[in-house]
Design a protein that fits this description.
This protein is an alpha/beta fold. The protein folds into two domains: 241 residues, FAD/NAD(P)-binding domain (3-Layer(bba) Sandwich); 173 residues, 3-Layer(bba) Sandwich (FAD/NAD(P)-binding domain). The chain is 31% helix and 20% strand. The strands form seven sheets. It has a five-stranded mixed beta sheet with strand order 1-6-5-4-22, covered by helices on one side. A hairpin with a 2-residue loop joins strand 13 and strand 14. The longest helix is centred in the C-terminal third of the chain and has 22 residues.
Length: 426
């Protein structure tokens, strides 16, 4: 039965891919399994877990490649910030030959092999403009538009909808007084590739998360003169502690001790290894790093060498920005300095509320599931979320497995009905 089900699913999968290629979109396309929106790591993980259970799926991706954010909107020197065993997708570990912290290029290669291994073939250049549950036919209506050919539209009908567009679908660009007057370069980290173009220049990096810290280090390595805007308190931890990754050590200790005890232990080790970061303008929050992450999803910075450059004066720490002028920045403490460029390491946000209609699963405010992890993966009427846990690839893998198991229960009960549903040939 499972073998026949998989064969039938495969033929239907080929059918709607044929329709896309032939641009025959006059009538809705029925998808027997889930429609997954987004072909990043989260979407691939969900598709693979479903595939393992013999359930076909269709991934709709607005870009023309897998993991477009990793491919086009990350800097060249990027490596995974956590050890590879915490970042691998379900059912296929990283090759043993890869380093503990794989590079961006190695991670992208892994994703491509992963998609090939599970025969995952997304429909690319399909920008989802709306998805809404039809209470009459009890199916989701997912409407798409061609990314480059707006006149090419399609509508898909499915029983299950998996939202895998992630927490980083769109850039966050703060509005700063005087932005229009600044004559230098202003760009978001999504457009930053390397510090080579900024050699010898004064560059202000806005945002002190992992990306902002690493961009500052990259600028230093290319002989630029970076300054870092730090408005809020921030936890900076060594990437490795006691010969283990800080993340791995934390996960191990949490099995045996309360979170607050583990936090105090991590902060003690950090103080011994890094010193008092407050004397360099990097004060710590009152809550510990794990408690802060658990309550608010705020990730601590794992230092890869930036702090040493701050200590030796190669990276200056600045207070918040008050306003910009033609070639200068005025800070809230009254200081004024000249800069050639400003890099916004201000993060990303979800765009789900802009296209998911009639569902209260996601908050209109931040585009994240209203229910916190680990309960935010399932909504009503067959809608699911994967990759919104604020726990990186590990959280996405956990959600992908849960979603596949949940859909499998319905799939088995309705297998006969799905097999009898005709493949539409418009």
């Amino acid at each position: 039965m499972d073998y026949l089900k998989e064969l039938e699913g495969k033929s239907v999968h080929d059918c709607y891919h044929h329709q896309i290629k032939m641009n025959k979109m006059a009538s809705p396309i029925f998808v027997p399994g889930p429609v997954i929106v987004g072909a990043g790591p989260s979407g691939l993980a969900a598709a693979a877990c479903l595939k393992q259970k013999g359930i076909p799926s269709l991934i709709l991706e607005r870009a023309q490649c897998l993991a477009s954010m990793w491919e086009f909107r990350t800097y060249d020197r990027l490596r995974l910030h956590l050890p590879k065993q915490f970042c691998q997708l379900p059912l296929m570990p990283f090759p043993k030959t890869l380093p503990l912290y794989p590079t961006k290029q190695q991670f992208l290669a892994y994703l491509k092999v992963y998609a090939d291994h599970f025969d995952i073939k997304p429909a690319f250049s399909q920008d989802v403009i709306s998805a809404e549950f039809d209470h009459v036919c009890k199916l989701w209506r997912v409407k798409t538009q061609g990314r480059h050919k707006k006149e090419e539209t399609a509508e898909y009908l499915c029983q299950w909808l998996i939202v895998a567009t992630g927490e980083c679908a769109e850039e966050v660009r703060p509005q700063i007084e005087g932005m229009g007057e600044f004559e230098g370069t202003i760009l978001h980290t999504s457009s930053y590739k390397s510090g080579s173009r900024f050699c010898g220049k004064n560059v202000l990096v806005v945002g002190c998360g992992n990306s902002g810290m690493e961009v500052c280090l990259d600028l230093c390595n290319h002989n630029a003169r970076p300054s870092l805007v730090v408005r809020d308190a921030v936890h900076i931890l060594p990437q490795q502690m006691l010969g283990k990754s800080t993340f791995g050590l934390s996960m191990f200790l949490l099995k045996w001790f309360p979170m607050r005890f583990v936090d105090q232990f991590l902060l003690l080790l950090s103080h011994l290894m890094l010193g008092d970061t407050a004397q360099f303008g990097l004060r710590r929050p009152k809550l510990g790093p794990l408690e802060l992450k658990n309550l608010y999803g705020k990730t601590p910075v794992l230092d890869v060498g930036t702090l040493a450059q701050i200590k030796n004066g190669k990276i200056k720490v600045c207070r918040g920005i008050k306003r910009l002028a033609r070639n200068a920045v005025e800070f809230v403490d009254g200081k004024v300095e000249n800069f050639d460029a400003i890099i916004l390491a201000t993060g990303y946000k979800s765009n789900v509320p802009s296209w998911l209609k009639g569902s209260d699963m996601f908050s209109e405010k931040d585009g994240l599931p209203r229910k916190p992890f680990p309960n935010g993966w399932k909504g009503e009427n067959g809608v699911y979320a994967v990759g919104f846990t604020k726990r990186g690839l590990l959280g996405a893998s956990i959600d992908a497995k849960r979603i596949a198991e949940d859909i499998e229960h319905c799939w088995k009960a309705e297998a006969t009905h799905v097999l009898e549903f005709p493949c539409p040939l418009a």
